[in-house]
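Escalated from tier 1: uridine-diphosphate-N-acetylglucosamine holo job.
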Amino acid sequence: MEKLVIQGGEPLAGTIHVHGSKNAALPILAAAVMVEGVHVIDNVPNLLDIQVMLQILREIGCKAEFSNGKIVLDTTHVHSSHIPEHLMSQMRSSIFLMGPLVSRFGHVQIYQPGGCAIGERKIDLHLRGLEALGGELKSSTDTIICQGNQLKGAEIVLDLPSVGATENIMMAAVRAEGVTVIHNAAREPEIQDLQNFLNQMGARIIGAGTSTITIQGVRQLSPCHYHVIPDRIVAGTVMIAAAATRGNVTLEGVNSQHLTSLTHVLRRAGVQVDVKGDIINVCSSRRPMAVDRIVTSPYPAFPTDLQAQIMTLLALSDGMSTIRETIFEGRFKHVDELCRMGADIRVDLNTAFIRGVRRLYGAAVEATDLRAGAALVIAGLSAKGTTVVEQIHHIDRGYENIEEMFGLLGANITRRTQTAKIVNN
Ligand SMILES: CC(=O)N[C@H]1[C@@H](OP(=O)(O)OP(=O)(O)OC[C@H]2O[C@@H](n3ccc(=O)[nH]c3=O)[C@H](O)[C@@H]2O)O[C@H](CO)[C@@H](O)[C@@H]1O
Ligand SMILES: C=C(OP(=O)(O)O)C(=O)O
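Tier 2 regenerated the structure:
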């Protein structure tokens, strides 16, 4: 079992280039199976979830080579539209193969997807979307089979703007007959990236980034070369870490527009954030101010994927902050771990009340999910003494070599397989 050992207290300093987006790359890789041929997809981060996606794609017949952020994916010999259960259960994003495989083969057999334990995470909107396009569903407790030899365009209203359901329906609709309109679609930048990828393959989609997406079905698609957008959540994590350690960090190759809600919150906390095109500088030399009424909501509001990390910063602030989590009902598991490091946080239903403390102290803590893990790393970087973060496979799902990333900014952080000794503070 690997763990991260962090000797905290050093302000982060330096310049960093942020890797490509996990949440954009995963649906794009799934979408590539819709057409036979060789795709080249670059700026792909080397993460556990990407490796699982490649394992699934190889299992159904793709050839994939991955080096230096570039994936050459040959989808010519895909021979199966059945995703084995042991692979489906490894991550939530395995569900993205449903739309593309129905589109190519008229049939798919999948199981309930896995993923971080942050809430119930139903897939009813994905399934209802496919049904609306004419897919015939048979599902038992675990197995889901969808048959749909010629899907037909439809007007679909999502009950809530689900990112994954919007993407799955978009992919299924690309080759459906006629026009599909998705109302109340999610507006995340990763959906725009998927639209751009699909259009580069020959699809005719407009509206991604707004809440109405229109897909005019096409017959022909062809493989393409595509560059994935930068990861706004990794960028946000580094920005918060810079603020929490009272450092000075410049991020390059980011899309600052994707980070507007975080920038706003950091500025409210008194952190200096300077934006020049795709370069962001974050600089802070004093204790952050408390920020109340942060509410996680669909894009462009504050992202749930940065909720745990911003909580770490606010745990160190001067005053009382509040965060309301409205997306996932089980996404406060990091609270207990932060409290073990000296934070003073109370949770009431979906709201966390954070009374800032002057200092966090190193401790042995456990990453309960991906972003909870990132929050604990930030806590460790800013704490006095040594922090050991366990269960870091969660962190490896979304951060490429997190110890190297923060190490380049001067952090004292190492990955170890042995039990580390905790120094008394
Ligand atoms: C790979 C990827 O892109 N993951 C992101 C995606 O996850 P994901 O696509 O799973 O998130 P959704 O937007 O679908 O989920 C939002 C809410 O809708 C609910 N829901 C969703 C689908 C459904 O069929 N039924 C249903 O009830 C979920 O339980 C959740 O409460 O968006 C989330 C919200 O920004 C992010 O935290 C994840 O990092
Ligand atoms: C929840 C996340 O991812 P996923 O949807 O892949 O579980 C995340 O990236 O924070």
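The chain has a mean pLDDT of 96.
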